[in-house]
Amino acid sequence: xxxxxxxxxxxxxxxxxxxxxxxxxxxxxxxxxxxxxxxxxxxxxxxxxxxxxxxxxxxxxxxxxxxxxxxxxxxxxxxxxxxxxxxxxxxxxxxxxxxxxxxxxxxxxxxxxxxxxxxxxxxxxxxxx
Length: 129
Ligand code: FES
What we know:
This protein is an alpha+beta fold. It has a single domain (5-124), classed as Sufe protein. Chain: A (Alpha-Beta Complex), CATH 3.90.1010.10. The protein has five helices and three strands, in the order αβββαααα. The chain has helices at residues 5-12, 65-78, 83-86, 91-97, 110-126; strands at residues 25-30, 37-46, 52-62. Bound molecules: FE2/S2 (inorganic) cluster (FES).
């Protein structure tokens, strides 16, 4: 199985790995194909335009190398984005930014954007007025 250079880079030196204490939103998803799990933590703040922005994002992944790479890449894509922009990040986009994944590993990319969406939903639910 051949991985792109970017996948290997993100696997060996993942960005934004860990947890955020008192996170504003948390999303957890499990991959039904393999049982691997990913959790996303968000810190949300308002920008000068009054939009809610992802100020900080971290991930914990109990999964394979492809799952760690996609988590890392997704956090890079989401950091600094408004919630509206972040909700447009798809699993396909994350895999594409990594230079693709081997077909057999495409299912691993399903965790990243899904966990991000869940974390945003969690934040929105907690902050419903
Ligand atoms: Fe489970 Fe990749 S094998 S996420």
